[in-house]
Amino acid sequence: MKTTNISTDLASLSKLIEKVQMGEQVIITKAGKPVALLVPYKENSSPREPGGSWEGKVWMAEDFDETPQEVIESFYGNRES
Q1: Which of 36, 42, 72, 74 could lock onto 28 through a cystine, CB 3.0 to 4.6 A?
Q2: How far is CA 56 from CA 21, 46, 59, in A?
Q3: pLDDT value at position 16?
Q4: Which residue, among 1, 7, 45, 46, has the nearest Cα to 19 in the 3D structure?
Q5: What is the rounded distance in angstroms from the CA atom of residue 71 to the CA atom of residue 60?
Q6: Between 53 and 72, where is the model more confident?
Q7: Domain range 2-38, its CATH number among 3.40.630, 3.40.50, 3.40.1620, 3.30.420
Q8: Residues 71, 77: Cα–Cα separation, whole Å
């Protein structure tokens, strides 16, 4: 993995991109501290699982949308008085 300083290699960005296209990763530093990582772009690569990946792993109770009266009263009190 190549490490390069942003101030010295900004002019040679096209050369860095060529290295990345060949599969090399390049760390860009500023004042000696890493600030960015150049990696090859891969078409159709997704860091997240596609939608529906929780299917079959989660269930919801039949009464999920029904709030018990005692819970409502604990928030709002008994307003019948």
Answers
A1: 36
A2: 40, 22, 7
A3: 84
A4: 1
A5: 19
A6: 72
A7: 3.40.1620
A8: 9
